[in-house]
Amino acid sequence: MIPAAFEYTRARSLADALKAAGTRGTKVIAGGQSLVPLLRFRLAQPSVVVDIGHLPQLQGIKRAKQGTVIGAATTYRDLLDSKLLHNTHPIIAETTAGIGDRQVRNRGTIGGGLAHADPASDMPAVVLALDAVLTLQSRRGKRSVPARKFFKGPFATAMKKDELLTEILLPFLPQGAGTAYESFEQAASGYALVGVAAVVAVSGGAVTHAAVGITGLADTPFFAASAAKLIGRTPNKEILRAAAAAAVEGVSANEDIHASAEYRLHLARVAVRKALTTAAGRAG
Ligand SMILES: Cc1cc2nc3c(=O)[nH]c(=O)nc-3n(C[C@H](O)[C@H](O)[C@H](O)COP(=O)(O)OP(=O)(O)OC[C@H]3O[C@@H](n4cnc5c(N)ncnc54)[C@H](O)[C@@H]3O)c2cc1C
Description:
Layout: E1 7-10, H1 14-21, E2 26-29, H2 35-40, E3 48-51, E4 61-63, E5 67-71, H3 76-81, H4 83-88, H5 90-96, H6 102-107, H7 110-116, H8 123-129, E6 133-138, E7 141-146, E8 151-153, E9 156-157, E10 164-171, E11 177-185, E12 192-203, E13 206-215, E14 222-223, H9 237-248, H10 261-282
């Protein structure tokens, strides 16, 4: 379909972008990989679209005191190319390589993907497992929101109408931690039927840290708190299998043309077990 008519402008500064975020009938666009399809289906009909994708204040990957900071409008391509991220958080490249196709990765941004909060997108699982902190900014000021409090439902987040996501802080991994991302993808788009990010640290043969984020399974990506019960245990086959079952227990799974709820739950148990096993194998 052809989108309804709208005016297109480019923000000249972050102040411009924040003004746009707070204006009724205006939508910001970064890479356009989710917004353009919405415009074409007329599921979104803003009267003004303001481009924020090129703003230098929203781009780049840098080392900070507490971890690695990624500007919200940093493209997936830039994440893949970042030596810093390869060193501090290799799970980012591991996950990003499976997002969409080359065109999507060249244009799409990490912040656009998180703000859009598609329950089948990959990166939410990763920011949940890493305990990332998101900076939300409006003309009223800035605030920090843990990723674990950011996703509120399908396409719904903790962002207020006048806020932009400006930065994502990935705290340094615990000493000796291994990470892994495992997903079962919808073949045409690459979106996750189920995607699981795991962080596991092991010392003296016992788990000292375990965190799991799950996407695609339920209507909201979620942090599986039960993984923390692995702490103090030996990460052997049986224990990791039991941890995988516990991580999805009681979850009301999505059902759609791509997979039944029962099948998604099965995939989730397999993906959690594989992600934990790989992360534990990389730990140390
Ligand atoms: C063919 C195809 C395949 C795909 N496959 C996958 C896949 O395998 N896995 C996956 O995870 N994703 C996939 N995607 C989705 C893609 O990752 C997202 O579309 C992309 O990350 C969104 O970022 P963007 O910069 O393009 O956002 P845009 O489309 O520009 O914006 C998306 C939404 O976020 C808002 N927004 C953008 N930036 C900000 C900001 N900084 N602050 C606040 N709001 C903001 C916009 O107003 C809009 O509502 C696919 C998309 C396509 C088209």
